[in-house]
Design the sequence.
């Protein structure tokens, strides 16, 4: 990664709203050709960062650079960024072709070239021949494809996506993720992506920025974040996690990192509470003192257990947090 | 079955009073007026003369042209100013804009009479503006009273808040993200206005213009108190016909003419709705 | 979206309809006024004109009928109170007012009285009736002079003190106050007001834009100015005639009105005639003009209340503008002629006359030397015996229409 060129850099950027909300001291580097996801619960400030990069919000202090050049004094239309919004926000009074051509016209591209590029782009996003349709005649997924196409047509240096798939139903959402990743790979474009869906973040990103209450909690690759959560918040936000209270400490361990053994052979003793079959694996909950611990086991093992059995849990990979931390 | 009948009875029972009221107070007088307008006042015979009178008599025709002039100017200026005001209210979030937003409808609540007299005391040749001018040694004669310009100024007082209210509602329905999307792909503020905000609010503008047009064609109080002797607004000309000259049939004809002038704007409005842009079809 | 649109269209149609309905509504109500008020008045006359209760000890109750605006009601209440408590008749007669506000059906009182006559009623409560010049002409036309008792000095001892005579039924009605259209002027700007019409025209020509009269049909002062201007060219009898023949002779008068048009008040580069008596009076008070015709009582009472500047004065020119006399008459169908005569006699005492001067700037009809005229000295200069009374009936409509067609357009903005 180190040989890669830095495309976007946020330098100690702060944006405060009049009511005191906002983000503070954000430092972030995004490399060329990378998908970086800002992940966090709603209100954590992830969209705020995206909007300051896009130029829709002023920064209170700090700087934002793209390719080493400060952009904070540029209006949105002068920034080398393109944004895809959660609400698709296609222009309802223009058909698909007009929506796509709008930005190209502003750049004074010859009509012939516009046409070629738009046709190509519609092919690429998988909705060829839709030129004459109006946004209201398209499904949500189609609209978002048009919105992405509209942004990509402008060949931005940085593509900003603000929860682009959250309004789509699950199936379409998965499909769109894959396509976005494919398109990104083909074009080698840099993407800053915002989502509150950790699964989506894991699926799509090279790196994830986990945010909490206006601050960055942790930056890392999906595996990094998943395996070594830096804070209790990251641990709780990403994937399934058991928090076991013990001697003033909190042990964070994922269900798949726990091995269920016969009584007396593991680290913690408990009693089986529930057994749930979830397809190819089984989720077992075990009552251990105050804690209810979730464990993933395979089906073969589950058939040897019954509710009420005494079992012992062996802890695999886990992280220990001081309780006072949160 | 009986439940269905009951529901029908209730439904029609609820509509009936409104329907009868409309028939009695609107449809019936309209029909009477139209019939009367084609009758000679003294003989009762069928005639077009009540209509031709208003187009062939120089003074009456002038009234018609004058009314159209005042109304067109009122609509144009009121809509233009209201649009600017609505844009400001929609896109500025300053304290001033919030204050204006809270206050701009107030003129609608001032009784017409009071407002007109208040305006007269300000703009008449010996009014407030003249007196302020005199303090600085300038004898300002606005010359607004008794002229179209004065009427237009007064009409603007009444109609700008009204038009701004309708247009503000329309602009409020345009999401920020539409504008941000346009800014994002490279449109400057002016381009955003012409390619996004205007096309998306043009219907509200047409509705507002329609209402301003209709309420001003028949206006009476303002031209009665502020208008000149000739030409006159049609509302005053109508008053003359039935009140001064007791020419009820001509008055009926003029009513119908005014109705048709109002109908022009209703026509524009309905056309703009029927033409129905494809993008609004769900 | 669709619902909203349908709603808006419905609203638009309703508004449209309402425009037309309001036009025609007003029009038909205008047309129906006369007929409707006649019927209601007849009904009222029938029910109210029940025989009066037998005269009480002394002279009994006198029912007085009057109509007009609220200041008329106020003056009658004051005068009746004075009559009942302080006059020589106090204790002998008790006057009661039956007042019908104008605007609620203007002809209601005269129509009611006429209906009572036509129904052959006798001994009614119509003891004494107050008439304006127009109402008097109308009632005489409806029921004839004989329907009112002849008046003489024995019944009304003060009658000899009044010089003014009604032009209609002079022996059967008693004038008790007058008002007239005069020339109101700003004495600061016009130290020596014109005395004749020729002097007035000369002054207008020398001071363009400083004179105006209100639009005829919107107030009596403007009516009086234009009508006297036209009828000055016609024989004296024409002014009290509704005969169509006189219409042909208006041309000269209208030429005169056209000739003075350029010297009228102008605003914004064109000649303007204001609406209503108050319109021209406001212009005078604001200093936008220096002279205008107006009603004497209107000018003086507004000056007394401070609404008009002190420098605004009134004068009469020769030939004079028209005026009117307010008269009282005793219907033959009344039930207390003695009481009625007593009230008439009271009304032309200096005490009553002074109340009318001070309270409504009426022109007194008796010698003012024994009266307190402070604030209303201007009234003393008005010669009531010289009143021109105008009644041209329906010709008034034709007259106003001609003015609107021939004079008003001259004032138009050159466009």
Sequence:
């Amino acid at each position: 990664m180190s040989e890669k060129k830095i495309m976007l850099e946020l330098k100690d950027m702060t944006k405060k709203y009049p009511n005191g909300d906002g983000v503070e001291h954000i430092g972030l580097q995004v490399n060329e050709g990378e998908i970086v996801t800002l992940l966090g619960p709603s209100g954590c400030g992830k969209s705020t960062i995206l909007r300051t990069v896009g130029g829709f919000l002023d920064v209170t202090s700090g700087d934002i650079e793209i390719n080493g050049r400060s952009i904070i004094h540029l209006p949105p239309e002068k920034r080398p960024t393109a944004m895809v919004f959660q609400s698709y926000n296609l222009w309802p009074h223009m058909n698909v072709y007009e929506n796509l051509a709008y930005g190209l016209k502003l750049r004074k591209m010859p009509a012939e070239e516009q046409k070629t590029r738009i046709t190509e782009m519609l092919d690429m996003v998988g909705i060829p021949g839709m030129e004459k349709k109006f946004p209201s005649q398209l499904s949500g997924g189609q609209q978002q494809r048009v919105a992405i196409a509209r942004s990509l047509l402008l060949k931005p240096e940085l593509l900003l996506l603000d929860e682009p798939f959250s309004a789509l139903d699950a199936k379409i959402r998965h499909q769109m993720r894959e396509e976005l990743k494919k398109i990104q790979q083909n074009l080698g474009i840099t993407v800053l992506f915002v989502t509150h869906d950790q699964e989506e973040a894991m699926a799509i990103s090279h790196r994830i920025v986990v945010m909490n209450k206006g601050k960055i909690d942790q930056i890392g690759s999906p595996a990094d974040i998943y395996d070594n959560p830096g804070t209790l918040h990251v641990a709780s936000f990403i994937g399934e996690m058991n928090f076991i209270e013990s001697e003033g400490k909190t042990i964070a361990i994922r269900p798949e990192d726990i091995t269920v053994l016969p009584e007396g052979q593991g680290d913690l003793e408990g009693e089986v509470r529930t057994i749930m079959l979830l397809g190819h694996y089984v989720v077992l909950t075990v009552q251990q003192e105050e804690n209810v611990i979730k464990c993933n086991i395979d089906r073969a093992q589950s058939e040897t257990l019954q509710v009420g059995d005494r079992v012992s849990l062996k802890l695999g990979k886990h992280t220990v947090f001081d309780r006072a931390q949160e | 079955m009986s439940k269905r009948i009951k529901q029908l009875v209730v439904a029609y029972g609820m509509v009936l009073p409104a329907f009868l009221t409309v028939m009695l107070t609107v449809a019936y007088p309209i029909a009477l007026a139209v019939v009367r307008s084609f009758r000679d006042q003294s003989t009762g015979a069928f005639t077009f003369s009540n209509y031709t009178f208003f187009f062939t008599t120089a003074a009456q025709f002038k009234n018609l042209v004058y009314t159209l002039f005042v109304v067109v100017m009122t609509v144009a200026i009121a809509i233009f100013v209201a649009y600017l005001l609505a844009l400001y209210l929609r896109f500025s979030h300053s304290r001033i804009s919030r204050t204006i937003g809270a206050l701009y409808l107030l003129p609608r609540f001032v009784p017409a009479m009071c407002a007109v007299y208040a305006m007269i005391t300000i703009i008449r040749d010996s009014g407030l503006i003249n007196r302020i001018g005199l303090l600085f040694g300038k004898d300002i004669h606005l010359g607004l009273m008794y002229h179209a310009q004065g009427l237009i100024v007064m009409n603007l007082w009444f109609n700008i808040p009204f038009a701004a209210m309708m247009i503000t509602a329309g602009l409020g329905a345009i999401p920020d993200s539409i504008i941000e999307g346009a800014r994002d792909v490279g449109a400057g503020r002016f381009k955003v206005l012409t390619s996004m905000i205007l096309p998306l609010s043009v219907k509200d503008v047409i509705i507002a213009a329609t209402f301003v047009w209709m309420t001003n064609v028949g206006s009476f109080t303002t031209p009665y108190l502020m208008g000149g002797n000739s030409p006159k607004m049609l509302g005053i000309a109508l008053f003359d016909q039935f009140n001064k000259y007791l020419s009820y049939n001509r008055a009926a004809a003029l009513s119908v003419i005014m109705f048709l002038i109002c109908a022009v704007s209703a026509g524009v409005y309905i056309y703009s709705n029927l033409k129905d842009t494809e993008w609004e079809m769900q | 979206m669709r619902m909203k649109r349908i709603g808006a269209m419905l609203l638009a149609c309703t508004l449209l309809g309402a425009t037309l309905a309001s036009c025609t509504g007003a029009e038909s109500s205008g047309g129906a006024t006369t007929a409707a008020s006649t019927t209601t008045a007849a009904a009222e006359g029938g029910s109210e004109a029940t025989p009066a209760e037998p005269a009480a000890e002394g002279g009994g109750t006198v029912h007085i009928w009057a109509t007009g605006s609220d200041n008329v009601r106020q003056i009658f209440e004051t005068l009746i109170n004075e009559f009942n408590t302080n006059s020589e008749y106090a204790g002998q007669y008790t006057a009661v007012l039956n007042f019908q506000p104008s605007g609620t059906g203007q002809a209601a009182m005269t129509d009611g009285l006429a209906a009572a006559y036509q129904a052959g009623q006798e001994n009614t409560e119509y003891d004494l009736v107050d008439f304006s010049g127009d109402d008097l002409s109308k009632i005489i036309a409806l029921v004839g002079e004989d329907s009112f008792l002849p008046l003489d000095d024995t019944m009304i001892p003060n009658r000899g003190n009044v010089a003014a005579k009604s032009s209609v039924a002079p022996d059967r009605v008693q004038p008790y106050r007058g008002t007239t259209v005069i020339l109101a002027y700003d004495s600061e700007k016009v130290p020596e007001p014109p005395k004749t019409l020729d002097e007035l025209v000369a002054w207008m020509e020398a001071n363009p834009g400083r004179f105006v009269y209100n639009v005829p049909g919107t107030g009596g002062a403007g009516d009086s100015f234009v009508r006297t201007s036209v009828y000055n060219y016609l024989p004296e009898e024409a002014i009290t005639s509704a005969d169509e023949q006189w219409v042909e002779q208006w041309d000269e008068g209208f030429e005169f009105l056209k000739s003075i048009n350029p010297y009228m008040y102008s605003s914004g580069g064109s000649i303007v005639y204001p609406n209503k008596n108050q319109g021209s009076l406001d212009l005078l008070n604001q200093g936008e003009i220096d002279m205008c015709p107006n009603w004497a009582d209107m000018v003086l009472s507004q000056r007394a209340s401070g609404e008009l500047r002190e420098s605004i004065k009134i004068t009469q020119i020769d030939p004079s503008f028209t005026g009117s006399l307010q008269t009282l008459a005793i219907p033959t169908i009344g039930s207390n002629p003695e009481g009625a005569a007593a009230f008439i006699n009271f009304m032309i005492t200096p005490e009553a006359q002074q109340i009318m001067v001070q309270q409504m700037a009426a022109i007194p009809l008796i010698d003012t030397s024994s009266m307190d005229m402070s604030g209303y000295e201007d009234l003393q200069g008005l010669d009531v015996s010289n009143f021109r009374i105008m009644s041209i009936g329906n010709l008034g409509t034709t007259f106003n229409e001609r003015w609107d067609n021939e004079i008003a357009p001259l004032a138009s903005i050159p466009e």
About this structure: The two ends of chain C are 45 Å apart (CA to CA). The domain at 179-323+392-411 of chain C is CATH 3.40.190.10 (D-Maltodextrin-Binding Protein; domain 2). Residues 69 and 102 of chain C are 6 Å apart (CA to CA). Residues 18-57 of chain C have pLDDT under 50 and may be disordered.
